[in-house]
């Protein structure tokens, strides 16, 4: 039975994985626990065993101020420490308690748990204790040795040996988790007369998820005596007390039984974290009970923290030669690819180097709907299936790797001979494409400590921690699995991915630059052509129109009605063509002439425009509204006048209202400032708005509203573009249009 907040709960294998081990409601009895009120430091809860350590039972201590219970050593201001934001930073505090006419000395270990303040006291060894200098020398030697290790394996071996030397435990192991949270002993220091565990694996069920989460938060846990009888916390709290960071926290009975089955009398574990994620443990076992002082425990924790900081560096150091080889291969692959316009072609030519990069026997380059095999790859149909699976399950994930494809999808078991393991990188495009490395199945023998597939045994008492009763070597044959890709190979694939993306982006920049230069050259030639054509055609057309007019005027009486009509049509067509040519001339000229920029008062520009358009405005009964004075901006006065004139003219021309109006305004809160010309005209059909600014495009409604060349808005857009601005429109087919435009070179000044 296990106490959780005062309630008894049976702990068995059905609820082991959800057992709330951080709130056991009990402690280990090698120390005593006091829960204080942070406000007045009065004792609210104590462990039931407090009398055996402090000489006064719970009934005497409850509601007493802490300083009546414990006397600090000389120079220790325990009250200031306990009222500080982080009392744990100054642990341990030396305190005394009167017991049998003498003072017994303790290490007081304090920390905050939510709104509660927890103080735990452990007896200070009366003899044989270690001094600070002893601990410092031992820790210094351990850190020097770990730091000087040539690789991860050597660093782990050094850590195990140094922690064994510090603690005197019979066995110290470095235990590493895999991706599925199974553990493997990768280093061990032990007494010569106990069986080795080095190389053995332990199933993930040995350390359930909530225990791993607690290991991530709290660096060190210790059980000085596996045979302890837990002490309850009294009185029963209304809410369970969180003992996550308690050094005395009682341990799950499941774990105690596990240790007893192993023949362990005392244990300690120190977490190993890599980038904040639980990587492994320093696991320490002793055959008999063995307490450790706070100083020794802190020394072991420091070794664990230091090894944690060294994990990444030692892994890279261990793979130093391989890393150099992979960098050279990456550079070689990129050099080969760069000689080809197409990345896929270059990668296909680099197949041999690609395979060496990940020590793979086969692979593929999957682009679009095509999967090109490399080396020993699956058959085309199977490769297409793998490509489809990658699209669905990997998508644009930068790097993906697995050592057993069939665990991800049983259908892949049929390609195990060439593709049991996979490493792939995605190259981002509208649809990502993949470079894939494949490894074949390698049948392996895994050495487990006990049968991992048999977590329970039955007895007369029900389910018990059975095969863990026996930790004898148990061998398992593992199929459908490839040799796992090493971290250095995964990093090399990531580096290749970055290099390919950089190469592709640089090529895109060059292509865009070349295309832009070609377009600019083509536009310049086109503008020159348009300028020449417009200039050279204007005079002949003007002559045709004039001659047609002369014939009609001089010989009207001699001409038939049909001939007169034909001549009039010639005159009209000449005039219309001249209008188009004038627009073409103006449009092409905009790309050649220099604009005259300066500070321009738009109110004066608008006044000139409305004066120029006054005749047509009066004829339509139209008004131009200006809600507030326009600003002074940096622009070409004449060209911006053309923009306003064009937009106002369109607003009046394409308008069937009895009272047409156009409004000119601006929004200075936008950067750059946005100007607008709004009207209550006919609106623009949604299906035609994309044609607004195209040269010589006339919209469907224009036929009903007079002549026009369809070039006005194209010219307007070009003028705005020469100001490094933009123009766009919003409209409703039911009526009304707003043209917006910006002038990027037009900072707001005082109006």
UniProtKB/TrEMBL annotation:
GO terms (BP aspect): detection of visible light; osmosensory signaling via phosphorelay pathway; regulation of DNA-templated transcription
Domain of life: Bacteria
Catalytic activity: ATP + protein L-histidine = ADP + protein N-phospho-L-histidine
Record keyword 4Fe-4S present: no
Key words of the record: Chromophore, Kinase, Photoreceptor protein, Receptor, Sensory transduction, Transferase
Gene3D superfamilies per record: 1.10.287.130, 3.30.450.270, 3.30.450.40, Histidine kinase-like ATPase, C-terminal domain, PAS domain
Domain Histidine kinase, residue spans: 532-747
Gene Ontology MF term list: phosphorelay response regulator activity; phosphorelay sensor kinase activity; photoreceptor activity; protein kinase activator activity
Keyword Kinase in annotation: yes
Domain Phytochrome chromophore attachment site residues, every copy: 151-305
Family as reported in the entry's similarity comment: In the N-terminal section; belongs to the phytochrome family.
Protein name: histidine kinase
């Amino acid at each position: 039975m296990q106490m959780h907040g005062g309630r008894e709960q049976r702990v068995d294998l059905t609820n082991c994985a959800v057992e709330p081990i951080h709130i056991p409601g009990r402690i280990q009895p090698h120390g005593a626990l006091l829960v204080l009120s942070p406000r007045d430091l009065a004792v609210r809860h104590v462990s039931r065993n407090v009398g055996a350590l402090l000489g006064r039972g719970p009934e005497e201590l409850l509601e007493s101020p802490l300083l009546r219970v414990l006397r600090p050593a000389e120079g220790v201001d325990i009250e200031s420490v306990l009222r500080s934001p982080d009392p744990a930073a100054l642990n341990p505090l030396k305190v005394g308690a009167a017991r049998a006419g003498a003072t017994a000395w303790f290490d007081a270990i304090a920390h905050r748990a939510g709104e509660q303040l927890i103080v735990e006291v452990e007896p200070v060894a009366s003899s044989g204790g270690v001094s600070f200098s002893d601990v410092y020398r031992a820790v210094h030697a351990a850190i020097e040795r770990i730091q000087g290790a040539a690789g991860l394996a050597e660093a782990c071996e050094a850590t195990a040996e140094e922690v064994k030397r510090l603690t005197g435990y019979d066995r110290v192991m470095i235990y590493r988790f895999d991706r599925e949270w199974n553990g493997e002993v990768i280093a061990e220091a032990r007494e010569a007369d106990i069986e080795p565990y080095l190389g053995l694996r332990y199933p993930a069920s040995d350390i359930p998820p909530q225990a791993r989460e607690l290991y991530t938060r709290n660096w060190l846990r210790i059980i000085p005596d596996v045979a302890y009888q837990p002490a309850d916390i009294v009185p029963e709290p209304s809410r369970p007390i969180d003992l996550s960071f308690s050094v005395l926290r009682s341990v799950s009975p499941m774990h105690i039984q596990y240790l007893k089955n192993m023949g362990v009398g005392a244990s300690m574990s120190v977490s190993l974290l890599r980038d904040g994620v639980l990587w492994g443990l320093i696991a320490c076992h002793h055959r008999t009970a063995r307490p450790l002082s706070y100083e020794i425990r802190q020394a072991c924790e420091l070794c664990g923290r230091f090894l944690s900081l060294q994990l990444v560096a030692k892994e890279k150091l261990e793979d130093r030669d391989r890393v150099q080889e992979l960098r050279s291969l990456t550079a070689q692959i990129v050099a080969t690819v760069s000689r080809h316009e197409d990345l896929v072609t270059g990668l296909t030519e680099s197949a041999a180097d690609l395979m060496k990069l990940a020590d793979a026997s086969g692979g593929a380059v999957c682009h679009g709907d095509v999967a090109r095999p490399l080396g020993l790859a699956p058959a085309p149909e199977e490769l297409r299936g793998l490509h489809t699976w990658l699209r669905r399950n990997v998508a644009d994930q930068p790097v993906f790797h697995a050592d057993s494809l069939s665990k991800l999808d049983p259908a892949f078991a049929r390609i195990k001979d060439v593709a049991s393991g996979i490493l792939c990188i995605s190259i981002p495009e509208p649809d990502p494409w993949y470079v894939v490395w494949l490894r074949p199945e390698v049948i392996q023998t895994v050495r487990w400590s006990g049968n991992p597939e048999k977590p329970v045994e039955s007895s007369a008492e029900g389910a018990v921690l059975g095969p863990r009763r026996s930790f004898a070597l148990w061998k398992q044959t593992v199929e459908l699995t490839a040799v796992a890709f090493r971290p250095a190979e995964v990093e090399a694939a990531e580096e290749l991915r970055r290099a390919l993306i950089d190469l592709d982006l640089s090529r895109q920049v060059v292509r865009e630059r070349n295309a832009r230069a070609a377009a600019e050259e083509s536009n310049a030639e086109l503008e020159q052509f348009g300028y020449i054509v417009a200039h050279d055609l204007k005079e002949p057309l003007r002559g045709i129109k004039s001659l047609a007019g002369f014939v009609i005027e001089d010989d009207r009486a001699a001409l038939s009605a049909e001939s007169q009509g034909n001549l009039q049509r010639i005159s009209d067509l000449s005039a219309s063509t001249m209008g188009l040519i004038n627009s073409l001339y103006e449009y092409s000229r905009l790309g050649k002439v220099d604009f005259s920029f300066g500070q321009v008062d738009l109110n004066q520009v608008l006044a000139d425009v409305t004066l120029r358009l006054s005749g047509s405005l009066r004829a339509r009964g139209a008004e131009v509204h200006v809600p507030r004075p326009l600003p002074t901006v940096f622009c070409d006065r004449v060209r911006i006048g053309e923009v306003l004139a064009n937009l106002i003219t369109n607003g009046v021309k394409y308008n069937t209202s009895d009272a047409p109006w156009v409004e000119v305004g601006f929004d200075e809160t936008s950067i750059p400032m946005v100007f607008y010309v709004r009207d209550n005209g006919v609106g623009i059909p949604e299906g035609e708005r994309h044609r607004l600014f195209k040269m010589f495009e006339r919209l469907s409604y224009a036929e009903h509203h007079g002549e026009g060349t369809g070039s006005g808005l194209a010219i307007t857009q070009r003028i705005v573009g020469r100001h490094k601005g933009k123009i766009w429109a919003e409209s409703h087919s039911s009526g009304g249009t707003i043209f917006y435009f910006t002038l990027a070179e037009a900072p707001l000044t005082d109006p």
